[in-house]
Amino acid sequence: MNLFQNVTVFLLVLTGLSITGLIYFGFTSSSIRYKDQNFCLKITKENQENSQLQSPQGLSYKQPIVVRQKNITIATTVFALGKYTQFLKVFLESAEQNYFVGFRVHYYVFTDQPELVPEVKMGEEHNLTVLKVPSSNRWQDISLSRMARLEKLIESRLINEADYVFSLDVDSKFYGHWGVETLGRLVGVIHPGYYLTSREYFTYERRPESQAFIPYSEGDYYYGGAVIGGLVKDVYRLAKTCREQLDIDASKSIEAAWQEESHLNKYFLYNKPSKVLSPEYLWQDQIPHKDRVKILRFSQIIKNYADVRPN
Ligand code: UD2
Predict the structure, then answer these.
(1) Residues 209, 214, 216, 218, CA torsion sign
(2) What pLDDT digit, counting tens, does each position of 105-122 carry?
(3) How far apart are CA 242 and CA 266, in angstroms?
(4) How much is the average pLDDT of 5-28?
(5) Which residue has the higher pLDDT, 23 or 131?
(6) Kind and range of the H or E element at 73?
C-alpha cells in the first residue's frame, strides 16, 4: 500500500466511526427525551387521576348571581326644627330619587311641628316616621341635642329595627347616587371646606378645658357633622360617647367651637372611621364643584342663617 491508499483507508475508518458515533448519540439522546416525555406524561396522568378539578359526571348547580341586593334596613335620622322644616321637601324628594333606591330605608324625622312635614311619595320599602320633640330657641342646642336623641332612638327602636343608621343634615339636597358603597362599620365624611387644609388650620376645639380638645399637632381630617353613619351598634357608641362628653362640657359651662361636630372630630381621632367618604358626599352649593369633585351627590343648599336660625 502506498501512502495515498493508507490515507484513504484512514479517512474511511474515521468516517465510519463518526457515523456510528452520531447514530449512537442520536439514539441515546432521543431515548432520554423519550424517557423524559414518558416521565412527564406519567406525572401529568397521575395528576389528572388525582385532580379535584375533574368531574367526569359534570357539575350541576344554579348559575351564580353577580349582583344580589342585601337584605338590610338603613335607618336615617333627620332633624327639622323651627324654620328648618322648610328644607324637608327638597331633602326627602331628592333622597327618594338617589338615596338607597331599592333598599329598605326608614326615615325618622325629628321635628317640633309635625304638621309641617310634607307628604312625599315614598319608594318601595321606604317609610317615614315623624317624632315630635320640644322646640328650642338656640340653634346650638338643636344641633348638639342630636347626639342624645340619636342615642335614645337607637336604644329604644333602631337596635331591633335597622342594620345601619345615617344621621344627615336637613338643609341639604341629593344630586347623585348614594348607595351601598357608603356602608361601613363606622362612616365619616370629609368636610368640603377642609379637604386641602393642613391639620393646624382645622377648626377643632382648641381649648384644653373642653372634652373635644385636639392639639394642633394631632388629627387626620376635619369631618363634617352633617353625615354620620355605620352599623347601629357602632353609631350608638359614637352618639353615647359624644353625648357624655357634651354633658361634661355643659357641666363646666363650655360649649365646643362647633358643638357636636367638635366632639365628633374628637371621637373620630381616637375611634377611626372604617370608611371615610369624600366631599362628594357632603358638598356646599355655594362652592363651585366642577373642578373639584366629579360627581356631586349630597350638598348643603344655600341658606341665609339669619333667616332660618332661631337666634
Ligand atoms: C355645621 C355642620 C352641622 C353641625 C353644625 C354644628 C356640616 C356641613 N354642617 O353646620 O352638621 O355639626 O355645624 O354647629 O358639617 N337644625 C334645625 N333647626 C335649627 C337649627 C339646626 O333643625 O334651627 C338642625 C338641622 O337638621 C340642621 C342641623 O341641625 O341641618 C345643623 O344645623 P345647621 O345646618 O344650622 O349647622 P351648620 O350649617 O353650621
Answers:
(1) positive
(2) 999 999 999 999 999 999
(3) 9
(4) 59
(5) 131
(6) strand 73-80
Buried b (16+ CB within 10 A) or exposed e, 13-51: eeeeeeeeeeeeeeeeeeeeeeeeeeeeeeeeeeeeeee
Q: Whose CA is nearest to atom 27 of ligand 1?
A: 169
Average pLDDT, rounded, for the chain: 88
Closest residue to atom 18 of ligand 1, CA basis:
81
Q: Which atom of ligand 1 is nearest to the CA of 81?
A: 22
Question: Cα–Cα distance between 195 and 281 in angstroms, integer?
Answer: 13
Pocket of ligand 1 (CB under 6 A): 79-82, 84, 139, 142-143, 169-171, 191, 224-226, 258-261, 282, 300, 309-310
In DSSP notation, 107-170 reads EEEEES-GGGS------TTEEEEEEE----S-HHHHHHHHHHHHHHHIIIIIHHH-SEEEEE-S
Of the candidates 249, 93, 87, 72, the one whose C-alpha atom is nearest the C-alpha of residue 166 is 72
Q: Are 264 and 169 in contact (CB under 8 A)?
A: no
SS3 97: helix
> Relative to the CA of 80, which ligand 1 atom is closest?
22
Told to judge if 261 belongs to the known catalytic residues of this protein, a careful annotator would answer yes
Three-state SS at 74: strand
3-state helix, strand, coil in the chain (%, to 5): 45, 15, 40
Rg for the chain, CA atoms, rounded = 36
Task: Read off the pLDDT of each residue in 72-98 and give the average, rounded to a whole number.
Answer: 98
The model's confidence at residue 42, banded by pLDDT at 50, 70 and 90, is: very low
Residue 51, pLDDT > 70, answer: no
Nearest CA to ligand 1 atom 32: 143
- 171 Cα nearest atom in ligand 1: 30
Nearest residue CA, atom 12 of ligand 1? Answer: 225
If you average pLDDT over residues 56-85, what whole number do you get? 85
Given this model, what pLDDT does residue 252 score?
A: 98
